[in-house]
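On to our target:
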Amino acid sequence: MTANENTSTKSATHMFEFGAPEPVLNNHISEYTGVYMDTLGEYYRPPVSLSGLADLMNANPHHNSILHFKKNMVLKWFKPSPLMTYNTMQRLALDYVVTGMMYFQVFKNGFGKIVRTAWLPSLTMRRGREQGVFFQLNKDGSKTEYKPGEVVQIIEPDLKQSIYGVPEYLGGIQSVLLSEEAGLFRRKYYKNGAHMGYILVTNDADLDEDTAKKIQKKVQDSKGPGNFRSLCINIGKSTAKEPVQIIPVGDIGTKDEFERVKNITRDEILSMHRMQPGLSGIMPETNGGFGDIEKIMKVYHELEIGALQQPFLEINQYVGAQAVVFNKPVWMTEK
């Protein structure tokens, strides 16, 4: 190798990047695909991902808390009966507020009278092609078929179809996803050293190809969690005083919009559930708080809980008895 060739090899400028952006969450959960027949033609497919709705519960603390609050409001005034136990109602209520539908199986005696009901999970239930027929999808890939009259389905109405129910909060899913993305981004931001990546600059005219590859591998192996792009540059000839410089990209004090995003999505989630902040466990930012909680609860019961109880009272029509009964709040019985 000649002297010129050696100089050319050593003084070459090296540049590489690492930490390519990574998608934090997919967006398929909010897609409304419509109701279509399964490939085998036995049952209809739900218009939204039911497992996705279940996963969404853990994506945001406010969304999760409000769903359980609504379930608890159904249970608070519920009076158990031989045909509808507390445990069965608890499962039906959670299914309904999360997926917008609930299923239960009826058991009859030899005279055709209903003597017992049992909860069926809305996540795995499918409405069959034949009228009154339902299927339950099992974990092993098999299906359990229920004959007409064995299963009762109660749904939250949907304007686009009448086969399955959809939850009321469907239009606010993007706010829940944005809140989770902001939270995950913040965690990775801190783990990455409170910066959104950096530029590593070296000034070495004698940096050969083998050494450059070793530096690239070491930096790539030592990088923090994904979603942050960084860049490494070697400038062969430079008048810089420092041979190695690390230039951070992004600063927590000026670039981070985390708190603003979280507050906006929180308010949107409360709005999509029509939930008062004082009932959702949120701490007030002012000394005045959210007002008289007792008055708020009375108004909430008048506007929301009464309507929430109606689908469950509809169960009585199917079983032909007073299986579901709700007690009145104390303030309604006081003189």
User: Anything to note?
Assistant: Residues 1-11, 18-25 have pLDDT under 50 and may be disordered. Residues 171-192+251-274 form one domain. The radius of gyration is 29 Å.
